[in-house]
Amino acid sequence: MGVMKRVQLVFKAKANKALDKMEDPRETLDYSYQRQLELLTKVRRGVADVATSRKRVELQMNQLQAQANKLDDQARKALGMGREDLAREALTRKSAAGTQLNDLQAQYAQLQAEEEKLTVASQRLQAKVDAFRTRKETIKATYTAAEAQTRINEAFSGISEEMGDVGMAIQRAEDKTAQMQARAGAIDELMASGALDDVGGRRDDIQSELDAIGAGSDVERDLARLRGEIAASSTKQLEGGTNGDGQAQHQQAQQPQQTQSQYVPPVSDLPSANEPAQDGEAL
């Protein structure tokens, strides 16, 4: 039983807090003002109903008074004609009408007093409703101004939910921007150092052709150099055999110096290995 009471208490507290958070004082004031207007309308309708009843009684009173006056005239005429019996009957009916008239007059006075009372109550209620309406509008205006001021202060201080979400979004955008800038800077440094030239093993086709042409030119240049050295060596050997041993020795003594300053002719000026020797030169 104690547990159930605690559960009910917690539920009521939660519900009260939720309702308090959802409640708007301006809506509550408008609803209260609407209820007061409905009550004022009912009071006015009651005043109108009492006034209608009073008017109906007043009409009945006028009719009875007219009937009593008519019966009195008829009794007088009947008595003048010697018809005492008819005069007596007319006066009897006049007496009954007078009794009803007295009852209606009492009822009329009661309705008139009730109407006056309801009219005063309606006027007082109207004054209270008007005062409540003025106070309601004042409270609503004050609450709206306070709410606007609170929102402005929260926006300036950054503690509102909307501004908090905006601040978080800006922070995330700044973090991502900084991360992207760091990544771009790292890639620029790697590209400048050449570490990303062959990333993935793919190279530009034109660059590959240019590199191949450069490598071919280096091979042709080395080949021409070797051919020139071989041809020069063969020529020196043939000249040494024709001029004698002295010249050969002299030629061998000077050969290192000539080899160092030997001019390497182009490939087109070198004799081919398949061409016959000229000027008595033998291979």
What is the CATH-assigned architecture of the largest domain? Orthogonal Bundle
Measured by DSSP, the beta-strand proportion falls in: under 5%
CATH fold descriptor of the largest domain = Helix Hairpins
Tell me, briefly, the overall form. rod-shaped
Helix content: over 70%
Give an overview in words.
With 283 residues, this protein is an all-alpha fold. It folds into 2 domains: 2-161, Orthogonal Bundle (Helix Hairpins), CATH 1.10.287; 221-283, no CATH class. Helices cover 84% and strands 0% of the residues. It has 6 helices and no strands. α2 packs antiparallel against α3 and α5 (205-243) packs antiparallel against α6. The longest helix has 74 residues, at 84-157. Mean pLDDT is 76; it is low at 246-283.
Write the layout of secondary structure elements.
Elements: H1 2-22, H2 25-80, H3 84-157, H4 161-193, H5 205-243, H6 245-260
Helix pairs in contact: 2-3, 5-6
Which characteristics define this entry?
283 residues; mainly alpha; Helix Hairpins; 2 domains; 6 helices; rod-shaped; disordered C terminus
Brief write-up:
It is built from 6 helices and no strands. It has 283 residues and is mainly alpha-helical.
